[in-house]
């Protein structure tokens, strides 16, 4: 199949009349970063450009190959064994898959990640919800045909756990490998009163540099128009308060290495609170992202 020439889209914002050109190639897919300039600040927002429409038959073939991969089947069994530890006899009531991306082609990381998700769905027999803004219509149809519910909301600040305070037996798994800090922070904030009822499968929070990201900045690197270092550190904590507090007390079980494609689950782990752990005191104020706004998908 021949490819079409790259399409270019220009964006402008404010009186500065500065343009950022985003090139879109038919050969590549995924998210492109749009940077808009306003008065005295620069804010990046992730904008999704879906891949070309791959046929339903092609997607089905790609996913069948992934699901029939012997290594992936054995790997899924390891993940199931890992999940049974924090469940400790409790039920997995639902799985929320966040940010897996496209899975139309075998080289997409979402392909193997979705195959593992299907194994989890089959083993635990629970409802699975898929929250991903960059899906094609064919991918949506494929998910629906495999009894996976498409999320009707993009709100990550909505609690997905039962309001029943006495219901401690039903657990929700957030399956979100390789998401951004803001995504994890939003999930933790939304469940700040129900953190013992959730498990997060995502980037290892213990290996994230959550405290020193801006420590190497000095005043010389901060222009007059920018905030000073102290303001920057305060903004960092305010935006990721839930994530920072949770990461200090959560228990972590690391995923094994997926040898045939290291990047699929690189530095991924399960995160959960032990039964006797004390809930972190997370502020009721809803997170407002600026430094990490580019990590929230639209």
TrEMBL record:
<feature type="domain" description="SRR1-like">
    <location>
        <begin position="88"/>
        <end position="272"/>
    </location>
</feature>
<dbReference type="Pfam" id="PF07985">
    <property type="entry name" value="SRR1"/>
</dbReference>
<dbReference type="InterPro" id="IPR040044">
    <property type="entry name" value="SRR1L"/>
</dbReference>
<dbReference type="GO" id="GO:0005634">
    <property type="term" value="C:nucleus"/>
</dbReference>
<protein>
    <submittedName>
        <fullName>SRR1 domain-containing protein</fullName>
    </submittedName>
</protein>
<dbReference type="InterPro" id="IPR012942">
    <property type="entry name" value="SRR1-like"/>
</dbReference>
<dbReference type="GO" id="GO:0005737">
    <property type="term" value="C:cytoplasm"/>
</dbReference>
<comment type="similarity">
    <text>Belongs to the SRR1 family.</text>
</comment>
């Amino acid at each position: 199949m021949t490819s079409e020439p790259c399409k270019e889209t220009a964006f402008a914002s404010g009186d500065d009349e500065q343009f950022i050109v985003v090139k879109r190639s038919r050969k590549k897919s995924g998210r492109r970063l749009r940077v808009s300039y306003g008065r005295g600040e620069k804010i990046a927002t992730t904008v999704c450009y879906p891949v070309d429409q791959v046929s339903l038959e092609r997607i089905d073939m790609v996913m069948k190959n992934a699901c029939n991969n012997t290594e992936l089947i054995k790997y899924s069994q390891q993940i199931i064994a890992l999940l049974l530890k924090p469940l400790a006899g409790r039920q997995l009531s639902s799985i929320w898959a966040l940010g897996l991306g496209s899975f139309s082609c075998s080289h997409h990381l979402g392909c193997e990640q979705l195959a593992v998700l299907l194994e989890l769905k089959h083993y635990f027999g629970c409802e699975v919800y898929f929250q991903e803004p960059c899906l094609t219509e064919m991918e949506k149809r494929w998910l629906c045909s495999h009894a996976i519910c498409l999320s009707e909301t993009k709100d990550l600040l909505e609690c997905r756990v039962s309001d029943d305070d006495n219901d401690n037996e039903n657990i929700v798994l957030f399956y979100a490998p390789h998401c951004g800090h803001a995504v994890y922070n939003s999930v933790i904030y939304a469940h700040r009163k129900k953190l013992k009822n959730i498990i997060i499968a995502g980037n290892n929070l213990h290996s994230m540099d959550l405290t020193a990201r801006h420590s190497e900045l000095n005043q010389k690197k901060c222009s007059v128009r920018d905030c000073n270092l102290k303001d920057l550190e305060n903004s960092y904590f305010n935006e990721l308060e839930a994530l920072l507090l949770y990461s200090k007390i959560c228990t972590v079980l690391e995923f094994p290495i997926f040898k045939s494609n290291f990047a699929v689950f690189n530095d991924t782990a399960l995160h959960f609170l032990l039964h006797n752990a004390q809930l972190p005191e997370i502020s009721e104020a809803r997170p407002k992202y600026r430094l990490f706004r580019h990590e929230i998908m639209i």
